[in-house]
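Box 3.1 A note on notation
Throughout this textbook, protein chains are presented in two layers. The first layer is the amino acid sequence; the second is a token string describing backbone geometry. Keep the layers aligned when reading.
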Amino acid sequence: QLEYVYNESQSSSLNIEVTNEKPTIDKVVDGDLSANIGDTVNWKVTATVPSTINKLETFSITDTLSKGLTYTADSLVVTHNGKTLVKDTDYTLSVEGQVIKVILVPAKLTALKDVVVTYKTTLNENAVVGTDGNKNDVVLDYSTSTGTDSETKPTKPETDPKVYTFGLNLT
């Protein structure tokens, strides 16, 4: 039998609840996997929200575009639990070069519901032509615990999607 003392009270019954969840993230090209230079490419990122979301300090999505993709300004939309979230209220957005970062406000999210981020890019003149494709990396950063000593932990999808373009070299 285990006895413990908490706040000067002694007890022999102790219930410990362990919550050990790892949120997931997935990303897909929303449409055709091949495009021509100048074409619009639609992206969809889906992240699961853990049951402990309201206790977490950090829940953000960072997306790094290849040099062959140009982000289309003002195309990003964040939805959660059937509603469109409001920029600068429910999340903040920063776009610096090829890096798009969505920092979500944990208190505005509902546990066990997905967050979906959609946006558009344009395949530009720096696109990789051929079977290597144009990679687009995404990472979900979240707090690893609900305490003040929490660290952030990055989570990546099993595979990062690519968009392909092919050229014809006439000589």
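The CA atoms of residues 87 and 93 lie 7 Å apart. The longest strand covers residues 114-123.
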